Amino acid sequence: METKKAEKKIKAITSAWFFDEPLLFSLYCTHTLVPVENLGVPFRCGKMRIEYSPVMVEHLNEDIASAYLTVEMYRILLQHPYSRQPHNAQKGIMLIASDMAIYQLLGNNHPLWKKITLSGIEYLKNQAVRFHSLTHPLGLKWTGSEEEKFFQRNLLIDHKTGALVSVDNLSFEQWYKWIHFLVTATGSFGENAGSSENAENSMFNSNAAELWEENHEAQQELQEQVQKADAEQGWGGIGGNLQRSALEEASVRFDYRKALAQFRASIVASSRSLTRMRPNRRYGFKAMGSRYDRKANLLIAVDVSGSITDESFNNFYHIIKNIFFLKIIEKIDVIFFDVNLKYTKPVTINKKVELKDIKGRGGTNFQPAIDFYFQHKNEYNGLIMFTDGEGQIPVIPDQKSNILWILDSRLAYEKAKGWINTISGNKSTYIN
């Protein structure tokens, strides 16, 4: 009986979407609706399913149930349940990052937040109270650090509205990185919070993100739905930052995972060491086995010359922020160049960088970026060059260079691949 009543309520909600929210309706139709007894949340999504609690949905009024379901559709729209996952991903932390990304895109005054409360936002509100009530909220070790300043800046409560106020407009991936740090490295659940797994269990017992896993086919299908909505002006009530973010996810059809996997393989191979603690695959303990350092340090060089368009730069940025999300990389430094380097030292991308904010925009010279890499080669396992390929062929002094060139178009790739691929240790690919 409860399941039938809940199904009827969901059907009423989604039928209204057919006319008013065509994109939400299309996304909903790509998934299978599944009732799950004893589910701790009204709805959750993943594995091309939308699961719901018959008991909870039946007892919610239609307006509130619609709000909860809408948030799950926004997660699907932004591909959070299907996107790349970091090494040993903590799904509870991913859920907080997803909540915060959606909260920021919609704005803290959005009508949805008058109807429902997201558990991730409540967790961060609690952290905001803790941060501004303690002298050393991260402990003495982190006093005055950039990490402490970040959370003091981004964990604020508007006392008039009770809303969470965040200054830095970060992506889902970037929020995961910061919240993972907060949970696992700083004892944010008490001085002896213990492992991230224990912290995660203390945050969420509903397993709201349990179904989340990387799924390239799902990403492709969702991207096609977004592109169709854009072509047919079928966005419905989805606009502003949420629409732009969805288009950004759908527009970069570059399988950087495959290129990065191959690039990482060459990096990992270079960090091989022999050990008696592991058997050789062929000869067992009679011969030494191999051990690989999973972590790597990476330098990224971004072309900001006058020939680089805002679209190309945004595509570069989109890929870079996702590289940050992968825990295979220990340290990532970013440099910008045209005829020379734009800064005296590498920067860490913590918030959106606009092309117009980078001074210069002159011609293209790859050599300063290449020279910087080789001058600091003992600090990095590899270099990724983002460029349109328009420039003089650089001199690469070391044949064991581990450089991946990512060109901004198929045309640029066809022009540059000949000279890039002839240099040992250099590979090239492109953004579609």
Explain this structure.
- This protein has helices spanning about 1-20, 20-30, 55-60, 60-75, 90-105, 120-130, 145-155, 170-185, 195-205, 215-230, 240-250, 255-270, 310-325, 365-375, 410-420, and strands at about 30-35, 45, 50, 155, 165, 270-280, 285-290, 295-305, 330-335, 380-385, 405, 425-430.
- It is of the alpha/beta class and about 425 residues long.
- It has a five-stranded parallel beta sheet with strand order 9-8-10-11-12, sandwiched between helices.
- The longest helix has 19 residues, at about 1-20.
- The protein is globular and about 75 Å long.
- It starts with a helix and ends with a strand.
Structural class: alpha/beta
pLDDT below 50 for ≥5 consecutive residues: which ranges?
189-205
Strand content: 15-25%
- What string gives the helices and strands in order? HHEEEHHHHHEEHHHHHEEEHEHEEHE
Q: Ends: how far apart? A: 50 Å
Question: In which range does the helix fraction lie?
Answer: 40-55%
Q: How many strands in all?
A: 12
Whole-number radius of gyration? Answer: 24 Å
User: Main beta sheet, described?
Assistant: 5 strands, parallel
Overall shape: it is globular
Walk across the major sheet and give the strand order. 9-8-10-11-12
- Integer average pLDDT: 82
Number of helices: 15
